[in-house]
């Protein structure tokens, strides 16, 4: 007798794998243009953050292979150095990526982290939602999708893998909720501590957001049902105490370095402290989405890397409708309150509507509080996006299980509503631009003939927030040479404990060469300027100055450098000035 063919069954395991595969394919779609040439392409508009992240990835290699101190480095901004704990050095991401960085370079590690950050965050939320909040896998997949691929996440995907790598957050949130009813609070508190410690080495700001969100949500639940507090406070207090004890012990020294170590700063630069959303931003699709428009979004967010609202009209209105429809459910009201609180905080110190200032926001009174003074307020919109995703998951499950005479029609309308809400903010491939390759002078190790371990290689222009190519050069060698300057946060004027700013001490040489690179005008320098420039080069212990042939305004830059230190010479694809005789401190 013929054996009957086995029917394909969508078992729960296969359904889960299909969802995870869909998330991974979507993440590859988003990053596809960068994957075509990771070293030669970068997100358009701003290229500083990817270079900084690649520098940090190379630092992780040195930590693993050479046992370097993980929380501070002198490999850039020499000789002052940089406090890496105060600069989100992503050690929890960079150290596991060391094999990839060694084999393929930090540029590949960067795009891989972005891809895994988007897909992993969506998958983690799907896992938690499907096991602990909703039974319907479609509902969990919709919630996970929006958590991983919201316009806010796509905006940060261009530049900030540390912010989009949120795959620990759903587990942290769930473990906090478990503490409210656990019979083993110490054990569960210790498990939470391990998650908290790992997240601290990915991004502390997101960890703080998670703690604030859990606090506001639990308060919203207890206000509605005070009787819950009587049973929840004791295990919660014991669990959080155990968590604080272990996490505090594990993080005590890194946090000491961050807040009291060399090059520590207190508070963010004024340039970003009041980064807030316009109210209208919640009704517009994000720039990197199907319905997005970069020109239309100008002014609604601080910049294109901080589009932290941008849910679009359809999803915003659908969310309001969900809250009204399910308003009798305690969890829905608590989620709505939580999302609203952080949506208001994300508006910053001055609340505006289509660029017109309306009134002072509550952030005005919170911005100077400890820890909050290091928060970029627009990023509170990330919390609102997650809350909307969870509300959407709950709504899909409720709609899917409605007991109506025509259930098929109800489900069809549910799918249609999801398409209407999510299609305008569907992710599109990230926009990219080409960037100059790392010079052959660097990749062929020709620089090693000039630079000793205690000396620096000075890229021209000097690395800064607006010019990070030199940081990519160093990262390509796994930081085998030191550079002055760079893009990082540090105390003003290099005084530990001062308010933060982007970059180190003001540099006369750096500002001079940056102006020439920008304007193309060659200045006429006098003896005083030459002496001051040589003093800076001695301070940096400069061994060689390097100017690539493909640098913008290369000829004006070459003529300017020659006025400072004399004639240079061509070597491979760069101009080189050997300044060791001029900068040596030996008599």
Automatic annotation (TrEMBL):
It comes from the Bacteria. The chain crosses the membrane at residues 103-126, 138-157, 208-224, 236-256, 310-327, 334-354, 374-396, 408-430. It holds the Pfam family DUF6311. This is DUF6311 domain-containing protein. The keyword Nucleotide-binding does not apply. Keywords: Membrane, Transmembrane, Transmembrane helix. Residues 42-396 form the DUF6311 domain. The keyword Glycosyltransferase does not apply. It comes from Micromonospora musae.
């Amino acid at each position: 007798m013929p054996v009957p063919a086995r029917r394909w069954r969508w078992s729960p395991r296969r359904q889960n794998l299909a969802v995870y595969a869909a998330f991974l394919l979507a993440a590859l779609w988003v990053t596809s243009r960068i994957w075509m040439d990771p070293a030669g392409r970068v997100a358009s508009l701003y290229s500083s953050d990817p270079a900084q992240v690649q520098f940090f990835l190379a630092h992780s290699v040195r930590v693993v292979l050479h046992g370097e101190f993980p929380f501070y480095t002198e490999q850039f901004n020499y000789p002052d150095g940089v406090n890496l704990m105060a600069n989100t050095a992503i050690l929890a991401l960079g150290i596991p990526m060391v094999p990839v960085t060694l084999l393929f370079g930090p540029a590949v590690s960067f795009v891989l982290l972005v891809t895994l950050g988007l897909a992993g965050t969506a998958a983690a939320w799907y896992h938690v939602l499907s096991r602990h909040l909703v039974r319907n896998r479609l509902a969990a997949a919709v919630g996970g999708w929006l958590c991983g691929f919201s316009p806010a996440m796509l905006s940060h995907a261009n530049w900030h893998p540390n912010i989009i790598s949120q795959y620990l957050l759903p587990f942290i949130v769930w473990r906090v909720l478990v503490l409210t009813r656990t019979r083993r609070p110490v054990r569960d508190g210790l498990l939470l501590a391990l998650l908290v410690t790992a997240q601290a080495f990915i991004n502390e700001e997101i960890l703080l957001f998670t703690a604030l969100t859990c606090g506001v949500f639990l308060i919203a639940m207890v206000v509605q049902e005070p009787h819950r507090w009587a049973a929840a406070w004791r295990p919660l207090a014991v669990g959080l105490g155990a968590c604080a004890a272990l996490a505090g012990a594990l993080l005590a020294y890194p946090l000491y370095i961050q807040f009291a170590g060399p090059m520590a700063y207190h508070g963010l630069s004024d340039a970003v402290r009041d980064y807030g959303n316009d109210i209208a931003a919640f009704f517009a699709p994000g720039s990197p989405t199907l319905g997005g428009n970069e020109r239309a979004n100008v002014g609604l967010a601080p910049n294109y890397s901080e589009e932290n609202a941008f849910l679009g009209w359809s999803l915003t209105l659908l969310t309001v409708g969900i809250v009204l429809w399910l308003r009798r459910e305690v969890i829905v009201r608590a989620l709505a309150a939580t999302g609203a609180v952080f949506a208001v905080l994300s508006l910053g110190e001055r609340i505006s509507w289509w660029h017109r200032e309306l009134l002072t926001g509550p952030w005005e009174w919170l911005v100077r509080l400890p820890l909050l003074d290091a928060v970029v307020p627009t990023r509170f919109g990330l919390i609102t996006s997650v809350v909307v995703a969870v509300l959407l998951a709950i709504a899909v499950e409720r709609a899917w299980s409605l007991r109506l005479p025509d259930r098929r029609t109800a489900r069809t309308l549910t799918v249609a509503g999801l398409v209407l809400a999510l299609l305008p903010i569907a992710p599109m491939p990230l926009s990219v631009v080409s960037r100059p390759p790392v010079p052959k002078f660097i990749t062929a190790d020709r620089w090693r003939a000039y630079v000793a371990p205690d000396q620096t290689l000075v890229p021209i222009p000097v690395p800064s927030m607006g010019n990070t190519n030199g940081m990519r050069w160093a990262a390509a060698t796994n930081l085998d040479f030191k550079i002055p300057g760079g893009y990082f946060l540090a105390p003003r004027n290099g005084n530990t404990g001062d308010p933060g700013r982007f970059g180190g001490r003001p540099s006369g040489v750096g500002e001079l060469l940056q102006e020439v690179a920008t304007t193309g005008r060659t200045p006429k320098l006098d003896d005083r300027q030459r002496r001051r420039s040589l003093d800076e080069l001695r301070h940096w212990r400069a061994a060689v100055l390097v100017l690539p042939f493909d640098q913008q305004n290369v000829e004006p830059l070459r003529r300017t450098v020659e006025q400072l230190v004399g004639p240079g010479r061509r070597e491979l694809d760069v101009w080189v000035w050997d300044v060791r005789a001029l900068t040596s401190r030996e008599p």
